[in-house]
Amino acid sequence: MNAVAVAGHCTTKFSAGDIKIESLLFSAAKSLFEQTQNLTQKDIDVVLVSTNDNKKYLAPIISEMSGISPKISHNIESMCNSGTNSIVSAFSYISSGLADVALVVGAERFDSPGQVLEWDLSRGEFRHPVFWASMFTKAHKRKFGTTEEQLAYVSAKNHRNAQDNPSAYDSKKYTIEEIMNSKKLTDDLRLLDCSRPCSGSAAVLLVSEKVARKFTDSPVWIRGIGQKTTSASFTRNDLTRIESTIDASVQAYSMAKTAPDKIDVAEVHDAFTICEMMILEDLGIVQKGHAGKYIVDMYNTESRKINPRGGLIGSGHPLGATGIAQVAEIATQLQANAAGRQVEGAKLGLVQNMSAAATSSTVLILES
User: Fold this and answer.
1) How far apart are CA 277 and CA 185, in angstroms?
2) pTM over 0.90
3) Is the pLDDT confidence value at 167 over 70?
4) CA distance 83 to 325
């Protein structure tokens, strides 16, 4: 199996802008070409587009707009973890020897059709993601004594981190009091417990080991991959566990021959504050039921180990771009190019990206 590296990456500014999906995708692709040494259109074997706006022929369209005639070109739609699933697909093409260079670009508009699926309509008035997040929150509170103040620390930490992220949708800093006093959406969730849909895009260039040095002096290697889909509905016995993340992380750690305590920096899918807590526990980074204290300690010590760019809550959540932006951030950290948000000495990074009430998860482990 061929080794695969991230050789280039970029993230555009996330915003509430009414921008066409084609323009978002092209902007990210153009920026990646401008930022990657020696890269030409003829080098690209694969173009993959990550988006939930799947009624268009977007991968071939972006290929044409960018002057690329790839061997392989198609879209990937998997709700919120479309981005990492696209990267896994590109990894597979390269590791198998079918390609040497793959451009993965993802984008979403603020009004993405992926916000609420036709499948979700079967749940009547409870079809919006805020309701499953509220169920997770209530269950975690009951089982582990998690407090609303601890949840507020997740949001405060990630909004603070986002201040050093030039691509972030919301660079405002919030106090714990402001978060706890923000508008209540359900009994257990407030407005500032939630990530926000927005318009944005990101791109990553994956390459084989034999051509990596042509495009970068500091490749970031994909060492571990894990994926798991448990269902489409969020029926489960324990609402305090994300089984798909547990399974995917076991696969990724095994493939990378590493363990949770070796991870220096991580991007996790904090669609809601409770999600960051549950994910950290289910990745094995912190003991079950102890994530609240762990996050408060991170906030007080100004640690950026988890979600240094601000996560989804601080950066925004353009569905098809999110997983790719997470990988771009970890690559930036491992290349020691993250400026004010840099995690010192980061050598091993993790990305956890999930979708649809956490019924599907992807975990990636990257190494400098």
Assistant:
1) 20
2) yes
3) yes
4) 8
